[in-house]
Amino acid sequence: MTPTPPAAGREAPCAAPPPPPLRLSWTVWSLGAFFYLVAFFHRLAPAVMTREWMADFGIHAAGLGQLSALYFYSYWLMQIPTGILADRIGPRRLLTAGAVGCTAGALVCALAPNVFWAGAGRLLIGATVSVSFVVTLKLAAHWFPPRAFAMISGIALLAGIAGALLAGVPLRLAVEAVGWRPAILASAAASAGLALLLWAVVRDDPAERGFRSWAEAASGTARRRSRPLDDLGEVLRIRNIRLLVFIPAGPVGCVLSFCGLWGVPFLTQACGLAAPQAAALTTLLLVAWAVATPLTGRLTDLLGRRKPLMLAGLALAAACWAVLLYAAPRMPFGLLTLQAALTGIASSSFTVCWPLAKESAPLRLTGTVTGVINMGIMLGPTLLQPAVGWMLDRFWDGGLAGGLRVYGAPAWRAAWVLPLGWLLLAFGLLLFARETHGRQAA
User: Each residue's pLDDT tens digit in the chain (442 positions)?
Assistant: First the structure.
């Protein structure tokens, strides 16, 4: 029998495309997450090269803090532009350009003849890897269902911490074996290879592969075009976003100031630990932080609440950091190990900021929101790393070892007041945030 054609003027119904298969979603997203791993590697690499950089470039604690923080300065300044660009030109082009720029920055840093060029390399690395986390969350919003967003943002941080672990003992062993310059050159080669993969595999949205976009399904509307400054203004008019610019910077600033630069010197100079023990403790804190972060994201999804879990975590984190920073010189190594793990777990509550911020603004502005919040988060280590170094130099008692400054317990006690103060401020600000109950803003 001949099928009856559709009536004139009417089209045959078309089946909606299916959502992307999970294997494809994870493949696309994982390449963005791997670039975030590279970003975290460069973020914390100075922690195991402090003596080499101080000796090669003739700098003290304040100078070392500034050199390390140049990464954070450019990373911080690029967050809002990155968020706007993520909404405008898409993740694929932005990630690829970032990986190419990271390759160039690592080359400049590795070949630097003096501290000026080393700083220029750090500045370029920070500016170009700044796209990694913002774009990774943008990909998550398009390639995964909304209910998975909090957990995936935690897994993204887990990928970053894997980069931090590579910047710990493995990088230190490489530095001792071949020197810090060849080790950084190897990271440049890895970034170049990643740039090729990003361009070949990543796509901005499942629709480019013939699948249904989760972002369109969640918002229920097509993407609306508007001016970048209008998008930014719309985001900054939301009270939750303004508060979350400063809140997660407290716990993240503590973790990255301690594990990224000052933890090993503190544990060796003030607590009398050997360098391998100190490096192991900072690594343990990072691992605990990383493992707990996706679990915290999953827990907040199950609860359907954001503020209570984050408030409890910030209070616990403040108590744990106070014990770790001020009681560590009198603690046995076993107890100190347990305290480092607890501190990392408590600090993982900052990850609740991502779903809380995303749900506070329209979904079409995910990139801009992520850029604004990440700019606030990186404000913590950007200011705290050099500030701790400045306090150490201010309270230095004149001690030297091998021609380099050694800081006594009074200097360390004064320096740690700054990150702890920010953590307490974060708790107070969160009290004024609005609970979203896991529901996306219209």
Answer: 445 555 544 544 556 788 888 899 999 999 999 999 999 899 888 878 888 898 888 887 778 888 888 898 898 888 788 878 887 888 999 999 999 999 999 999 999 999 999 999 999 999 999 899 888 888 988 888 877 777 787 788 788 888 888 887 789 889 989 999 999 999 999 999 999 999 999 998 898 888 888 776 444 444 455 677 788 888 889 999 999 999 999 999 999 899 878 898 899 889 989 877 888 898 899 889 888 988 888 888 888 889 999 999 999 999 999 999 999 889 999 999 999 999 999 999 998 998 899 889 887 777 788 778 888 888 888 889 889 989 998 988 888 777 778 888 889 999 999 999 999 999 999 999 999 887 777 6
| Amino acid identity for residue 92 in this structure | R
* pTM metric for this prediction: 0.71
Question: How far is C-alpha 31 from the chain's CA centre?
Answer: 16
Burial environment of residue 319 by CB neighbours within 10 A (0 to 12, 13 to 18, 19 or more): middle
CB 172 within 8 A of CB 48: yes
Q: What one-character DSSP code corresponds to residue 2?
A: P
Could you tell me the CA-to-CA distances from 357 to 130, 238, 351, 352 in Å, in that order?
A: 19, 9, 10, 9
405 bridge partner residues: 400
Token pair in block for residue 147: 């209910």
Cβ–Cβ < 8 Å for 144, 214: yes
Give the containing element (helix H, strand E) for 312.
helix 307-327
CB 381 within 8 A of CB 73: no
Contact call for residues 265 and 409 (beta carbons, < 8 A): no
Contact at 8 Å (CB) between 88 and 230?
A: no
Contact 191, 102 (CB under 8 A): yes
To the question of domain 22-205+228-430 being in CATH 3.60.40.10, the answer is no
Q: State which H helix or E strand residue 404 sits in.
A: strand 404-405
Give the up-direction half-sphere exposure of residue 410: CA atoms within 13 A in the CB hemisphere. Answer: 7
Chain centroid offset of residue 44 CA: 11
Place of tokens 């100075």: 46
Extents of the domains making up the chain: 22-205+228-430
